[in-house]
TrEMBL record:
Residue ranges occupied by any Restriction endonuclease type IV Mrr domain in the UniProt entry: 88-200
GO terms of biological process kind: DNA restriction-modification system
Residue ranges of the TM segments: 21-39, 51-67
Record's protein name: Putative membrane protein
C-alpha cells in the first residue's frame, strides 16, 4: 500500500531577477569607489599598493561569491512523496500493534494488545479520548480473502457481552463481504476495510469519530 509521489527534477536552475541585477550593480559601484579611493590616497609605496589591492580585491571577491550563491536549489516535486505503511506485509502481531499505535496517535489510551486464541476477539483494548471503551479485532488478510459474516458474528458475540465495548470495530487489510457488513450494521460494529485503514493511517481522523 505505498503511494509514491513524483520524482524531483534533476539539475540546477539559476535565478535572475531585477533584485539580483540591482545587487550586482551596487557591488560593482562599491568596487569602483574602492578603486578610486585607493588611487587618490596612494603615494606609490608598497604598503599603499597592498592596501589598494585589498580594497579592490575584497569587493570583487564578494561579488563573485554572491553570484555563485545565487544558484537556486532544485525545485521540489509537485507532490510530496507519501510512504504509507504496508500493512499487508506485516505479521499478525505487528499488524495488531500498528493498529494500537494508530489509536494511541489519535488520543486513545491503549490498555492491552493481545491477539491469539485466548483473546476472545479483542486484539486491541483501549479507552477513547471521550472515555468510551474501545474494542478492536484485527484481520490481516490478503486482498483476495474477505472478512466474512461468521468472522464478524464471532466478534459480535464477545465484544459487548465479554469486553463491555462501547465502540466495537473490525479492522482488516482486505474487504468485507456484504453479509458481514449487514450484520455489523445491525449490531453497531464498525467495519474498517483496507482503503479506510490507509486513509486513517495517512490523514485520519479515527473512524469512530466520523
Amino acid at each position: 500500500m505505498a503511494t509514491p509521489g513524483r520524482r524531483p527534477r534533476s539539475g540546477r536552475q539559476y535565478a535572475f531577477s531585477l533584485r539580483n541585477l540591482s545587487v550586482c550593480f551596487g557591488l560593482i559601484a562599491i568596487v569602483l569607489f574602492a578603486v578610486g579611493v585607493a588611487v587618490r590616497a596612494g603615494d606609490g609605496t608598497a604598503e599603499d599598493l597592498s592596501a589598494a589591492a585589498v580594497a579592490m580585491g575584497l569587493p570583487a571577491l564578494f561579488v563573485v561569491l554572491m553570484m555563485r550563491r545565487r544558484r537556486v536549489a532544485p525545485a521540489p516535486p509537485e507532490e510530496d512523496l507519501l510512504e504509507e505503511v504496508d500493512f499487508e506485509a506485516m505479521a499478525p502481531g505487528e499488524f495488531e500493534q500498528e493498529v494500537a499505535d494508530l489509536c494511541e496517535r489519535d488520543g486513545c489510551q491503549v490498555i492491552r494488545v493481545a491477539g491469539g486464541a485466548g483473546d476472545l476477539g479483542a486484539d486491541v483494548l483501549a479507552t477513547a479520548p471521550d472515555g468510551r471503551r474501545l474494542v478492536i479485532q484485527c484481520k490481516r488478510y490478503d486482498p483476495t480473502h474477505k472478512v466474512g459474516s461468521q468472522d464478524v458474528q464471532r466478534f459480535g458475540g464477545t465484544c459487548f457481552a465479554v469486553h463491555d465495548a462501547q465502540i466495537a470495530a473490525v479492522v482488516t487489510t482486505s474487504e468485507f463481504t456484504e453479509p458481514a457488513v449487514e450484520y455489523a450494521a445491525q449490531c453497531g460494529i464498525l467495519c474498517i476495510d483496507g482503503h479506510e485503514l490507509a486513509t486513517w493511517a495517512s490523514t485520519g481522523p479515527a473512524p469512530w469519530t466520523e
